[in-house]
Amino acid sequence: MNPMVITAAMVGAETTREQTQYLPISAEEIAADAAKCREAGAAMVHLHVRTPEGKPSQDTELFRAAIRAIRAKCDVLIQVSTGGAVGMNVDERCGALKLTGADRPDMATLSTGTVNFGADVFWNPRPLIRDIATRIKGLGLKPEIECFDVGMIDEARALEKEGFITLPAHFDFVLGVGGALSATAEGLDFMRSYIPQGSSWTCAGVGRHQLPFVELAAERGGNSRVGLEDNIYLSKGVLAKGNFELVAEAAKRAKSKGRELATPQQARELLRLT
């Protein structure tokens, strides 16, 4: 099997400091945790940003500050979110896609369908998907196709036919969100069997499913996403003292299944970012 790419989803838009004091908010806090994640075995970080008050934001300058701070500390790959927070318009969501030159990220997410998101709706109508895909392509980035449900894989095929993306691609299965596809081994097996031939995949189990799904992904030759965006607990009732603790636990579980961990350079090659 290929080495496993572990991605640390560090901040997100939903987790709050009231839920966990260990959520990094400032550029300096994000960079310090990212460096520890890299040391623990992560090859990439999935990045959202916050205002100083902790409010979800997609502000270009906040992304710039976080990316510069991370790169000053370590060589981890940086994948930016274009999902932002529920309710943001397309221009807000694409704040990180204005960064060029040395501040340009390594990758960007592309969610390919509207989905219930707990009590909210993560709104991704087809014209908006194509707008974001165009911006990602214009920056010369490869998208990570974020799929909360199976139909989002079919939408990726439609995007390829229309020239917005190229296949094979890298997919991220986000499983266990309320209102979307449940986190089950059967669901994971169908998703990974359904992606276009030659594509790579990551699984992000939400909440209590996060760490068990590292093992399922490891056994199946896939990659894994962990972090405070999707889960704040290291074990039942025990808060992770940072994203790095979740990465370290994921690394331990992956190795127990016989998987080596990808370096950032290996991840760049495996995800076709070169």
Strand content: 15-25%
What helical percentage do the residues reach? 25-40%
Structural class: alpha/beta
In this structure, how is the largest beta sheet organized?
8 strands, parallel, barrel
SSE string: EHEEEHEHEEEHEHEHEHEEEHH
Helix segment tally: 9
State the total count of DSSP E strands. Answer: 14
Question: What key phrases describe this protein's structure?
Answer:
single chain, alpha/beta, TIM Barrel, 8-stranded parallel β-barrel, two-stranded antiparallel ribbon, 14 strands
Describe this structure in words.
- Helices cover 35% and strands 19% of the residues.
- It has 274 residues and is an alpha/beta fold.
- It has one domain: Alpha-Beta Barrel (TIM Barrel), CATH 3.20.20.
- It has an eight-stranded parallel beta barrel with strand order 1-2-5-6-9-10-11-12, surrounded by seven helices. Strands 3-4 form a two-stranded antiparallel sheet. Strands 7-8 form a two-stranded antiparallel sheet.
- The chain is globular.
Summarize the topology.
Layout: E1 6-9, H1 27-40, E2 44-47, E3 49-50, E4 56-57, H2 60-73, E5 77-80, H3 90-93, E6 107-111, E7 115-117, E8 120-122, H4 126-138, E9 143-147, H5 151-161, E10 170-175, H6 185-194, E11 200-205, H7 210-219, E12 223-226, E13 233-235, E14 238-239, H8 243-256, H9 264-270
Parallel strand pairs: 1-2, 1-12, 2-5, 5-6, 6-9, 9-10, 10-11, 11-12
Antiparallel strand pairs: 3-4, 7-8, 13-14
Helix pairs in contact: 1-2, 1-8, 7-8
